[in-house]
Amino acid sequence: MPQATHQGVLRSGDIEIEVAILEDGQRVITQSGFMVGLGRIRPPKGRRYYKSGASLPAFLTVQNLVPFIGEDLVTAAHQIEFRTKSGVKAFGYTPQFLSEVCSIFARAQHAGVLKADQHKIANRAQTIAEQLEHSSTCV
Predict the structure, then answer these.
(1) To the nearest whole number, what is the mean pLDDT of the chain?
(2) Are 40 and 59 in contact (CB under 8 A)?
(3) Which one is predicted more confidently, 70 or 3?
(4) Could you report the per-residue pLDDT of 33-65, keeping only the tens digit for each?
(5) In sequence order, which residues have a C-beta less than 8 Å from that of residue 116 and are 6 or more positions away?
(6) Would you say the C-alpha torsion 105, 111, 114, 119 has a positive or negative sign?
(7) Alpha-carbon dihedral of residues 98, 102, 107, 111, nearest 10 degrees?
(8) pLDDT tens sequence across 73-111
(9) SS (H, E, C) 19-82
(10) Which residues contact 121 (CB under 8 A, 6 or more apart)?
């Protein structure tokens, strides 16, 4: 299992996302950092949500978002298991996964299909996408 050699936080306004660089150079966004960054509470341990065999966070499997989920997201959805600098087992995603999630919310918002409680996630996703676009730091 790869170990993180660097850990940090990607900040954009009031949004903070925990990130790490693994010993093989791979950049990851921690699972908890991903969920908190989008304003979601992490799902309970052991719960998994599937679409096309991929494990997706529950908030992505709601009916109004399913039409916007493509193969790029499903491909990027696999969790990366690693150890933090302190040796704790953790899970993360590639920056591409976060970027794909941001894109889903942008397309759904543009199509006018978001529910009231999804607008906050869409707004945070837009802020994150802009930060990722301009960032040359950890992710």
Answers:
(1) 84
(2) yes
(3) 3
(4) 888 888 876 554 544 555 556 677 777 888 899
(5) none
(6) positive
(7) 130
(8) 888 888 899 999 999 999 999 888 888 998 999 999 999
(9) EEEECCCCEEEEHHHHHHHCCCCCCCCCCCCEECCEECCHHHCCCCCHHHCCHHHHHHCCCEEE
(10) 38, 39, 40, 59, 105
Q: Show the tokens assigned to 50.
A: 């599937």
Q: What is the pTM of this model?
A: 0.78
Tokens coding 96: 């591409």
Domain definitions of the chain by residue range: 4-134
Token pair for residue 64? Answer: 């109004």
Q: According to the model, what pLDDT value does residue 43 have?
A: 55
- Nearest 10 degrees: Cα torsion 122, 55, 31, 89: 180
